[in-house]
Write a structure and sequence with these properties.
It is a single chain. The protein is mainly alpha-helical. The chain is built from 10 helices and 3 strands; from the N terminus they run αααααααβααβαβ. The chain has a 3-stranded parallel sheet with strand order 2-1-3, covered by helices on one side. It is globular.
């Protein structure tokens, strides 16, 4: 699944529309051969920025095989930029616009053929032609369970990468005075009950505090206020940033 985050070092713009990242890096350098699915095409990062072409066409041209449309025929949660009103925001209209893009040469038919083949191969691999629908009763028993939360934590732990440790502070000693600052996801304000919204913030701070009685920390918003900045500047100890 692509993120809508933009990376200036890789050409800028949402990764969902970035062919360099999807085709050259993900598929070329990393060798990924599976299906690429966009994150919700109706998120604010897409809908609130004006585009010269339909978002669906931009995503497919960049290398996405499937476009996720959570809002479907409803209005996007974050609204639509006035310049984006020209693009269809219903599923049927979006499909028609992609078909038109192929017919008029804006989108190569070969790009569609490759995407369809990957999707069909994936469906065949997981027997989705024989069992096309998910077992909702089983899903209710699995989603949100303690086992699922533990697996989520394990995936987070495996995904952690130490970028630098110039002063050789790690691994730290239990007697060290440590102050941890961790960015709190803004999604935690939108989805306060979601487990994943807190795993990289509060969970990290708690884990460090459990290692030493001299460790403590806080999470901060993306744009911290004066009170948060003052709290951070007055902290004492060895800083370890998440």
């Amino acid at each position: 699944m692509t993120t809508h985050a933009a990376y200036d070092a890789w050409g800028g713009g949402p990764t969902t529309f970035n062919r360099l990242l999807i085709e050259d890096v993900l598929r070329g350098e990393l060798g990924f051969r599976g299906v690429v699915l966009t994150d919700d095409i109706n998120m604010g990062a897409i809908m609130l920025t004006p585009w010269t072409e339909p978002p669906d066409v931009l995503a497919i041209r960049a290398g996405a095989d499937m476009v996720l449309d959570v809002a479907a025929d409803a209005d996007p949660l974050f609204g639509i930029h006035p310049d984006n009103q020209q693009w269809p925001h219903d599923v049927a209209g979006q499909i028609d616009r992609v078909v038109a893009a192929v017919q008029n040469g804006e989108l190569e038919a070969a790009r569609i053929d490759v995407a369809v083949r990957r999707i069909l191969e994936t469906k065949m691999r997981f027997c989705l032609f024989d069992r096309p629908f998910a077992d909702t009763d089983t899903a209710v028993k699995v989603v949100g369970t303690s086992e699922a939360e533990l697996e989520s934590l394990e995936l987070h732990a495996r995904g952690i990468t130490m970028v630098r440790d110039q002063n050789h502070l790690l691994p730290f000693e239990a007697s060290d005075r440590i102050y941890v600052t961790s960015a709190g996801w803004y999604q935690s304000e939108m989805y306060p009950d979601a487990f994943w919204a807190n795993a990289t913030g509060k969970t990290l701070v708690k884990a460090i505090e459990e290692q030493s009685v001299n460790a403590y920390g806080d999470t901060f918003r993306l744009h911290p206020g004066a009170r948060e900045r003052k709290k951070s500047s007055t902290a004492r100890g060895t800083p370890i940033e998440s």
